[in-house]
């Protein structure tokens, strides 16, 4: 068993406390931390958490002998809290993005390495049947090299309960980071340069741009065409988007995390040989999916000392964070190409 404390019990953190952590069998909770007494009181009254396990600061909580800190805080708190957790000798799993800048992210990665601790970013979209199957098919060269990847994400935020109208870069930083991270995972490749344009339509409630298009060039030559919108009037896509991966000998077509208006649908993946019909592929279920998958993965790494393929370590996730920042920079330059190397300096 991995003994863990959770840091951050706000709206999203409470969701982790209630819906995620109890479903991971090799996690033993020994502490809950939030500097807001109302937040700690809520987990006590609504979830029956013993008040002796609740703390108002990290220093007191660190004395309980935990192995892992589950950091579920607002983005701007990620860097200072994760840094302190690592300094206290804890392994860490943290929500994305795990830092606000590449410099901060590098510092956390280096601190984790120096202290011999595991730092994982909870890229929960990786833990779904369709992207895992797609990554394995691409890795096995099912249809040969990938030439073009097309991804569509469509949601209408005003009619779907969206709340974060003043968030900077609500598409690229908050949503597209999932899609960009999946590109890296599924292709088994790193981006080389990007071009991106974003905009805010008339009558939008967003304070910043909720729509964008991007072209991404990868090291092996694959081009990805990405279109995302929080203000779409078109058919709603699954949260992970709709993907078409055009290879030399056929297409891999898939979608994932099909949740809409309280209803959940299965992941889907089809294979289409060139000039043939698309045929659905049966996707095996995975034991722990989504956020339970990320938490289960770091628990297993702590227990075994072995890091599996496609594990979203802080070091790996530097490249996803850089991709997000490159698209934001390109958009600020009117769509000019931005080399990832410029961001990673």
TrEMBL record:
Limits of the Gfo/Idh/MocA-like oxidoreductase N-terminal domain: 7-122
InterPro entries: Gfo/Idh/MocA-like_OxRdtase_N (IPR000683), Gfo/Idh/MocA_oxidoreduct (IPR051317), GFO_IDH_MocA-like_dom (IPR055170), NAD(P)-bd_dom_sf (IPR036291)
Keywords: Oxidoreductase
Pfam families per the UniProt record, alphabetical: GFO_IDH_MocA (PF01408), GFO_IDH_MocA_C3 (PF22725)
Domain GFO/IDH/MocA-like oxidoreductase: 133-250
GO molecular function, one term: oxidoreductase activity
SUPFAM superfamilies in UniProt: Glyceraldehyde-3-phosphate dehydrogenase-like, C-terminal domain, NAD(P)-binding Rossmann-fold domains
UniProt similarity note: Belongs to the Gfo/Idh/MocA family.
Listed name of the protein: Predicted dehydrogenase
Record organism: Devosia psychrophila
Lineage: Bacteria, Pseudomonadati, Pseudomonadota, Alphaproteobacteria, Hyphomicrobiales
């Amino acid at each position: 068993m991995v003994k863990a404390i959770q840091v951050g019990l706000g709206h999203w953190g409470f969701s982790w406390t209630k819906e995620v952590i109890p479903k991971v069998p090799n996690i033993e909770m020994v502490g809950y931390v939030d500097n807001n007494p109302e937040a700690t009181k809520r987990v006590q009254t609504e979830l029956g958490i013993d008040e002796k396990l609740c703390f108002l600061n990290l220093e007191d909580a660190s004395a309980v002998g935990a192995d892992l800190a589950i950091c579920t805080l607002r983005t701007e708190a990620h860097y200072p809290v994760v840094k302190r957790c690592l300094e206290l000798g804890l392994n860490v799993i943290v929500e994305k993005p795990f830092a606000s800048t590449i410099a901060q992210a590098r510092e956390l990665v280096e601190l984790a390495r120096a202290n011999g601790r595991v730092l994982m970013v909870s890229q929960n979209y990786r833990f779904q049947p369709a992207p895992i199957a797609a990554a394995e098919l691409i890795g096995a060269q099912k249809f040969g090299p990938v030439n073009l990847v097309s991804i569509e994400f469509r949601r209408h935020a005003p009619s779907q309960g969206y709340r974060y109208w003043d968030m900077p870069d609500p598409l690229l930083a908050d949503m597209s980071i999932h899609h960009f991270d999946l590109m890296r995972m599924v292709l088994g490749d790193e981006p080389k340069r990007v071009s991106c344009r974003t905009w805010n339509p008339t009558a939008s409630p967003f304070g910043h741009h909720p729509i964008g298009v991007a072209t991404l060039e990868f090291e092996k030559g694959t081009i990805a065409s990405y279109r995302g919108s929080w203000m779409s009037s078109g058919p709603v896509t699954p949260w992970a988007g709709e993907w078409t991966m055009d290879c030399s000998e056929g297409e891999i077509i898939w979608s994932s995390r099909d949740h809409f208006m309280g209803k959940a649908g299965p992941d889907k993946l089809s294979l289409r040989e060139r000039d043939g019909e698309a045929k659905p592929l049966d996707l095996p279920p995975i034991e722990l999916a989504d956020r339970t998958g990320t938490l289960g993965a770091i628990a297993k790494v702590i227990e075994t000392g072995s890091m599996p393929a496609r594990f979203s370590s802080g070091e790996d996730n530097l490249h996803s964070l850089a991709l997000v920042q490159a698209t934001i920079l390109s958009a600020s330059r009117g769509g000019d190409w931005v080399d990832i190397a410029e961001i990673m300096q």
